[in-house]
Amino acid sequence: MKETPLSICEKQTVIQGVKEGQRVDGRSLSEQRKTCITFGTEWGCCQVLLGNTRVMAQVSCSVQVPKSSRANEGMLFINVEMSTMAAEHFEAGRLGQQGIEVNRLVERCIKDSRCIDLESLCILVEEQAWEVRVDIHILNHEGNLIDAATLAALGALCHFKRPDVTLDGRDVIIHQLDERDPVPLTILHHPLTLSFALFNQGICVLDPTNLEERSADGKLVMGLNAYRELCTLQISGDGVFIHKEAVISCANVAASRAVQMVEMLKKSLADDAAERYSA
Amino acid sequence: MAEKSFSTHVNQIYLPGDSVTLSKTDEISTVKIVLGPGLRKYGKQILVTKSGVLRTKASPATYWIDCHHKRYVPARGDDVIGVVTNKVGESYKVNIGSSEEASLSSIAFPGATKKNKPNIQIGDLVFAKLLIASIDMEPELVCVNSLGENVGLGVLSTSGFLFTVPLHHIRKLLNPECTLLKSLGKALSFEIAVGMNGKIWIKAKSVKQTIALARAISISEHMNKEEMNKLCRKFVDRQAGF
Prior knowledge:
The complex is a heterodimer.
Chain A: H1 8-19, E1 35-39, E2 45-50, E3 53-64, E4 75-82, H2 96-111, E5 122-124, E6 128-140, H3 145-159, E7 161-162, E8 165-168, E9 171-174, E10 183-184, E11 192-199, E12 203-206, H4 210-215, E13 218-224, E14 230-236, H5 244-278
Parallel strand pairs in A: 4-6
Antiparallel strand pairs in A: 1-2, 2-3, 3-6, 5-6, 7-10, 8-9, 11-12, 11-13, 13-14
Helix pairs in contact in A: 2-3
Chain B: E1 3-5, E2 13-14, E3 19-21, H1 24-28, E4 33-35, E5 39-42, E6 45-48, E7 52-57, E8 61-66, E9 79-88, E10 91-95, E11 102-105, E12 125-132, E13 140-142, E14 154-156, E15 161-164, H2 167-174, H3 180-187, E16 191-194, E17 199-203, H4 207-219, H5 225-240
Parallel strand pairs in B: 1-3, 4-8, 11-13
Antiparallel strand pairs in B: 2-7, 3-6, 5-6, 7-8, 9-10, 9-12, 10-11, 12-13, 12-14, 15-17, 16-17
Helix pairs in contact in B: 3-5
């Protein structure tokens, strides 16, 4: 089914409102929607709610032969699935332009920033290594899928534990979860993305809703970690003008938000661990 | 399968597959009963096809199932708001949120003739009535009544704002007992068009007021009468403080 087209009056109201510092859902320009991170019963299952946008990520692992070019490293694979119930224009089994963009940006933010120590996933050089797979499911699309997807993927990776492995000579023994305590992945830093919708008057709006994304002239995606280090930067949109001062100010807003978000993620992880321990 | 009679079981919850039987008095009476959405006559039985609450309305005695819906299924006679997506020959294609786009003839406007047609751009909004809404056919819209007169339908101004709410909220707002829009109107003057397809177009004096009204209407979705009155009072206070 086709996506409901954007009417002229919706676009005009969003642009006029943003000019006056008003957003359609009553937020200020650099305010995020309410974020909620929850974990499933299984290791490596994380669900993120960003306003009404809902994304779930599940991490799984399997033993594979490492790549010959990187014989002493494990592998990280990121896959995005867009459920047809998330939005009327999503098609089953086909990512489309938007899906590919989400997939690529999550990959760039998490894989290319090397936040997972892949060398620790190697079992036997050139023979066996863990392949960690992150499946991201978009469950409801209400704007800003990229931020929700990266947060869910990162949360799931932080929450995930793989089975322990011991070596007996050159024989690999994989211990079941009830046999030995599973091991968490080694996470070196926590990169997140924060998106801004860009309007041609030079206004940047944090965490855009679906309507704002569609009315905007462009998009700025920043990947940052809690040490205020920039991991990813992407500006998209045709013919969008943005001053370098605006990029810097966006980066400052995003950096302080990233610190808060990572803190929130760590707190939810600690709460989940405490709940599991007590149960 | 639950066996429940109509009039005595209004406001009860039903699941698909449940059957509703007529009470003794209903069976004898010659009053015509209309089955609305969610109810279907199957042989001698009346079956429920949606999960929700049984609702009723007097004269003509109508029964239907009320439930949470976001997808609109066209029904003849409904007033809807649609976005014009294309112009094909003498008619426009209008997206009303249904599975297929509706068509709107360019002469189905008050005072329009073959030579004098309304000026409609792609992306404009129209408030129109569904003339044809059949499962197998393309829905057809009109902006006039059967006599070709103006009945308040037509193109909506581009300076307003359009937002979407679930369908049950629309039914609640259009219920004569609902005072939300009237009370909001006492605080601010605004124009509103409410489409049965879940779309609401609203226009106040400024963008700020329009957004405030749209938000007030959206958040009243799960509110009862008292909470709505409370919301209105709060809204009036805040508007006075501007």
